Amino acid sequence: MSKSAKNVYVKANSAMFDDLDRAIVRALQVCPRGSFSHFADTLATSEQTVARRYRRLHSTGVVRVTAVINTEALGQTNWLVRIQCTPNGTAGLAQALAKRDDIGWVSISGGAAEVVCVVRSRTAADREDLLLDRLARTAPVLGLTTAMVLHPFLAGGADDWAGLSEALSPDQDRRLRQAGSTAASAPDEGGSRPRPPETIDRSDQVILDAMVIDGRSTYAQLGAAAELSEGRAARRLQSLLDRRLLQIDVDLAPEALGWNVAAQLWMTTSPSDLDAVGTALAHVPGMSFVAAITGPHNVIASVICRDHRHLYQLITREIGAIPGIRSLEVSPRMRTVKQAGALVEHARLTT
Question: H or E element: which one contains 220?
């Protein structure tokens, strides 16, 4: 299939999904491990309909519930890496990085000459091996810029991106959040004291791995994988969530739902404005990630918009109204190669 044919395919198939599909996707964002019966009751439809719609959304690569291992709780930091490449080597490098377990959120931007990724290595040695040795010896790499993630303002929540928030009524949203509040820990706001690194054993690791593959794995499935009883598996999972070693996430294919433009925003502020700017950006509609970072830019944000006009309005009206932003670089995302827990091909999630 040619590139133009693939684009037509994606646009045509965005019409396949109706209001109920979008409501189910938003319900998964709000309550990722919620039961289909509760979804059906909240959305005033049948459980069979919800289950059938979910299977279709999942099998066509529109939505996937996964889990993200929190390497910071293990004593490591996350790094953002911008890799400048030769244009003919960008796609190959992005695909190679996407296959690594310690790499997340791989995208191609900068006029097809830049790869941006998140490095989540569990040890400093693994990170240094990647950044100082392997990438340095890769032929297409012309240069790279690294930035440590200092503080996330918007990250780690399944419903961080609120582009589909209007798919649910306020009452439906409230009911689903109440049901989901017992099944997942809230993201760390960063105001607590530093905690010593956590440790995990074999059973924890098996549960972690299973949840990355399918964030809706049943307790019976987790128990069978970890050779534990269903009750012990449930307690282990809740412990991982409470200790913030695991965060349940929801991967989406925004283009399939009519959101066709994504961009990374690299900003600078004065140190005294950094916290206020980051907090304000986290409340801008369309944001999916906001964090304070090191380097020449001290704030990074990712945004998903309907089209380029929507992006322009967001930049000029929403972001432009936030005091304290000294500079802004808009880097359109040409292609997303990997998200939190899934590879992306032709704008759809794959395993």
Answer: helix 219-226
